[in-house]
Specification:
heterodimer, A: about 300 residues, alpha/beta, TIM Barrel, four-stranded antiparallel β-sheet, about 30% helix, globular, B: about 270 residues, Elongation Factor Tu (Ef-tu), domain 3, Rossmann fold, 2 domains, seven-stranded antiparallel β-sheet, seven-stranded mixed β-sheet, about 20% helix
């Protein structure tokens, strides 16, 4: 059986994953943490997407940053990260030794931030691709604002495309009126693949204290609560672009992952589910393999988008 | 770190806390339904467990995040005990309190940084506010094994909330205090500290944040510059330092409670 998937078929170097199970940005740190835990072999993953990275280190938002909701998790971390310089200095040298490709998620407040980040990371050994984060709902400027409309999304994509020779994924926000138009614009602007969705903007209130639970008032909703939304958006986007789509949003089981692949995703990102079950990635991978065996599927590509119209 | 499925050996409500609201005489938005002592069979985990560390427990289908619990006790049969209060609106703790003998619980750990007993510390003062005895019990056990002299100050709102005497660790001195005077001395646990601080080489505390704040603000009176470590509790996402959900500002910069803690020097977090 062939589990490998190509995420950047139009790119000269490509971005070949040994299997379609990836980590979701912001839920797996830099991937280096898991190595010390000896919990599972990180090399068995399809790809690692690291914490959203900005030009300068970022302290993130006020506490509380997390609140559990019905079938979901609201977070307002606010892109706390070590900054691109420390990432290149401390993390990339570890990634060089890995077989699993590492994709760096980048986030900026301005177009030039994105371009500078892409330029800094271009050619850094240990980095196989970039994921352009135009969808973080938890920062004051930039982020999701770029992802909200097709023109700004395309502008960011073009800026990054010009600044790097690495394969680029663009991660889209669900908080937009027409995600298909944003996806088409991003694809035309030179993205190698599209990942979706980031979290949905949400809120929870402490009725005894009469104030929002989260320090940042609102946050981003993830977990099983958003899966049907994410699935329909993946289905919608996969139908209008001719580049690979990576599905993300509430994936907890192999069945969830298979649904996304059938809706048109070439790969999936798993995040929130790994908090309760740190080795969920391998459980999902195992489940996909069993499904393929049972159904007599020889290659993942055989069922990518089978549900697409 | 190990991720395992552990069998429940016993699960007992050892504290009934329905009188808590009345005893506290403060408006409480929520009631505590009781506190449970849960013994789990996890021989894969016990050899590495150290006092102050915690485990993350999956608490059933209605929860998304695993719940952090201090390791309360470890025995030589490969079992660990958790001690936790069940709030009326606590989804995770309610679920966990209903696990019967023989049922399975998924967890991973041990996680985080442990309490550290200095090599030259002979006399340890442990200060437990309410459920704060959870990590200090294990510390007391280990300290006794290392031939340290341990004094445990154990305080709660009322007698029904005081850890049962017959279950307390042996070979340590325990002093009980309640806010309403229904057991032991009347008053708050923190008010007992000045009486014992001179003899102590090191202080270890676990309780609510206001208790730590007062200890710190009046450290000349309470602590007399004795090194003090405290355990912090918070909502956690991953428990493993990858999600940045439990970041706090400390004198050493931003730190994750789950990975850089949950044990901190009191000076660093105030």
């Amino acid at each position: 059986m062939n589990f490998s998937v190509e995420l950047a078929p139009k790119h000269p170097c490509g971005l070949l994953l040994a299997n379609p199970v990836m980590t979701a940005a912001g839920t797996f740190g830099y991937g280096t943490e898991i190595e010390d835990e000896h919990l599972f072999d990180i090399q068995k993953l399809g790809a690692v997407v690291c914490k959203g990275t900005t030009l300068e280190p970022k302290k993130g938002n006020l506490q509380p940053r997390l609140v559990e909701t019905a079938s979901g998790l609201l977070n307002s971390i606010g892109l706390q990260n070590i900054g691109v310089a420390a990432l290149i200095r401390e993390k990339a040298p570890i990634w060089v030794k890995w077989r699993v490709p590492v994709i760096v998620n980048i986030a900026g407040e301005t177009l030039s931030d994105y371009a500078k980040l892409a330029m800094r990371l271009d050619g850094v050994a240990g980095i196989s691709g970039l994921e352009v984060n135009i969808s973080c709902p938890n920062i004051k400027a930039g982020g999701a604002e770029f992802g909200a409309n097709p023109d700004s999304a395309a502008a960011v994509t073009r800026a990054v495309r010009k600044a790097t020779s690495l394969p680029i994924l663009v991660k889209l926000a669900p908080n937009t009126s027409d995600i298909s138009r944003v996806a088409v614009a991003v694809a035309e602007a030179g993205a190698d693949a599209i990942s979706l969705i980031n979290t949905l903007r949400g809120m929870a209130i402490d009725i005894h204290r009469r104030r929002s639970v989260l320090g940042n008032i609102t946050g981003g909703l993830s977990g099983p609560a958003i899966k049907p939304v994410a699935l329909s958006m993946v289905y919608q986007v996969a139908g209008v672009v001719d580049i690979p789509v990576v599905g993300c949003g509430g994936i907890t089981t192999a069945q969830d992952a298979i649904e996304f692949i059938m809706a048109g995703a070439s790969a999936v990102q798993v995040g929130t589910a790994s908090f309760a079950n740190p080795s969920v990635f391998l459980d999902i991978l195992k489940g996909i393999k069993q499904f393929m065996q049972k159904e007599g599927i020889k290659d993942v590509s055989e069922f990518i988008g089978v549900v697409s119209g | 770190m190990k991720q395992i499925i552990a069998k429940v050996i016993s699960n007992t409500r050892i504290l009934k806390e329905l009188e808590r609201r009345r005893a506290l005489k403060r408006p409480q938005p929520r009631d505590v339904l009781g506190s449970y002592l849960l013994w789990l069979d996890c021989p894969e985990l016990t050899p590495k467990a150290k006092p102050g560390q915690f485990v993350m427990v999956r608490c059933g289908g209605k929860t998304i995040l695993p719940r952090p619990f201090s390791i309360h006790q470890v025995n030589n049969k490969g079992n660990i005990a958790l001690f936790f209060a069940v709030w009326e609106d606590g989804k995770g703790t309610n679920w966990l309190s209903q696990r019967h003998i023989g049922s399975k619980v998924e967890l991973f750990g041990p996680l985080g940084v442990d309490f550290s007993i200095r090599s030259d510390s002979r006399n340890l003062l442990l200060v437990a506010g309410g459920i704060g005895i959870a990590p200090l019990y294990f510390l007391a056990q280990e300290a006794v094994k290392k031939t340290r002299s341990v004094t445990l100050l154990l305080g709660a709102a009322t007698a029904s909330q005081i850890y049962p005497k017959n279950l307390l660790p042996s070979r340590i001195k325990t002093v009980i205090t309640t806010e309403d005077g229904s057991a032991g001395k009347k008053g708050r646990v923190i008010d007992l500290v000045p009486e014992f601080i001179d003899r102590a080489d090191q202080v270890f505390a676990c309780g609510p944040i206001p208790m730590y704040r007062e200890m710190y603000l009046q450290r000349r009176k309470f602590l007399k510059n004795k090194p003090t470590q405290v355990s912090l509790e918070t909502v956690m996402g991953c428990g493993r330092g990858v999600c940045y959900g439990c970041t706090i500002k400390t004198k050493k910069g931003l730190q994750e409670i789950c990975r850089d803690g949950p044990i901190f020097d009191l000076d660093d977090i105030m």
